[in-house]
Amino acid sequence: MITKEAVLNALSTVMDPDLHQDLVTLNMIDNVQIDGMKVSFSIVLTTPSCPLKGKIESDARRAVLTMTEAKEVDIKMTAKVRQANPIDLGSNCFKHVIAVGSGKGGVGKSTVSLNIALALAKDGAKVGLMDADIYGPNIPRMLGIDQLPDKPEDSKIRPAEIHGIKVLSIGFMVQPGQPLIWRGPMLHSAIQQFITDFDWGDLDYLVVDLPPGTGDVQLSLAQSMPISGAVVVTTPQQVAVDDASRAVGMMAKLEIPLFGIVENMSFLPLEDGSKIFVFGENGGGNLANQVGAKLLGRIPIDPGIGVGGDIGSPVVLQEPLSDSGKAFVEIARNVAAEASKAAFNKKITG
User: Fold this and answer.
1) Is-contact 100 221, C-beta < 8 A?
2) d(CA 260, CA 291)
3) How confident is the prediction along the chain (350 residues), in pLDDT tens digits per residue?
4) To 10 degrees, what angle do helices 184-196 and 216-224 make?
5) What is the 3-state secondary structure (H, E, C) of 32-68?
6) How far apart (Å, rounded) are the C-alpha atoms in residues 65 and 46?
7) Could you tell me how far CA 120 lies from the centroid of its own chain?
């Protein structure tokens, strides 16, 4: 006879590859049911974007089949994004705030921010995207939207919603092409208002598209709320890597954990399967090694990315099975895994 205790004993041998503890200790097993020789249960992942959920599922099935008398194992994979101390700002609650920055402009930081947010939402997370690039707000064009929804009476203004994500940008509030010639205090006020004066609701992830460089907006964001971690975007050439290293240094000074490095425009794929390294080779990987961080992924040169951004058709939505589409999904899932690890480690040490 199969018992619940036997099933849990079997599952206690299955490790979460990222958190390095077993599924039972991590309280990831729920609703164990036994019907004759059939066992069913749920595995509650720490993020719907877990990059290793296939391995966790297969390891759990194998353990129960091997260590109990079960002949059939039915597993339901669910997820609940966890954070040791979610950021609670009245009606707004952010479980993770992910800052995406770069040392210089033109490396594809906004493209990475947008496609990470969309990929996380496609996996089932509740996601917001805050365009904090006050001087160059590109997110509205890249999504094909240009205004906020009407404000309900007696309530906060709501961010725009499209493709399953909530979006806020200064680009919704100024005329197209209008330059914003603002000093630091005005930037700080805008960032604070973005966080507190809009109705974000309860989000698993708030992705923040920072301006390039190491300036006032980055400082204002760090002063306004805790950041779960940062992603730094670079292209392979040494000039970009040098500037990206300064962005990494800024994150360290602001005590923002570094989730990892994204290398954009890594190579040009050719039809015969070969690659041309137009901007040099492995600059992002070298930077990751230098600073002791994870290389979250490499994005190939793909004209479809630029075209999609110009017409409001992001590649993760329109060409998810392309090499670039799959690269963005991989990066988003790696970011989610790093956020889960950071939350777990904070809980253990906090």
Assistant:
1) no
2) 9
3) 899 999 999 999 999 999 999 999 999 999 999 999 999 999 999 999 999 999 999 999 999 999 999 999 999 999 999 876 778 887 899 999 999 999 999 999 999 999 999 999 999 999 999 999 998 899 999 999 989 988 777 778 999 999 999 999 999 988 877 888 888 888 889 999 999 999 999 999 999 999 998 888 998 999 888 999 999 999 999 999 999 999 999 999 999 999 999 999 999 999 999 999 999 999 999 999 999 999 999 999 999 999 999 999 999 999 999 999 999 999 999 999 999 999 988 765 44
4) 40
5) EEEECCEEEEEEEECCCCCCCHHHHHHHHHHHHHHHC
6) 24
7) 6
Torsion, Cα of 257, 332, 317, 126 (10° steps): -70
**SS3 readout for 72-131:** EEEEEEEECCCCCCCEEECCEEEEEEEEEEECCCCCCHHHHHHHHHHHHHHCCCCEEEEE
Identify residue 286 by its one-letter amino acid code: N
The C-alpha angle 289, 292, 294, rounded to 5 degrees, equals: 75
- 343's tokens: 């939350």
Is the pTM value of this prediction over 0.90?
A: yes
**Which pair of structure tokens corresponds to residue 149?**
């929804």
Q: How far apart are the C-alpha atoms of 259 and 251, rounded to whole Å?
A: 11
Q: Which of 206, 19, 231 is nearest to 121 (CA)?
A: 206
Residue carrying structure tokens 């921010």: 113
State the chain's maximal CA–CA distance in angstroms.
74
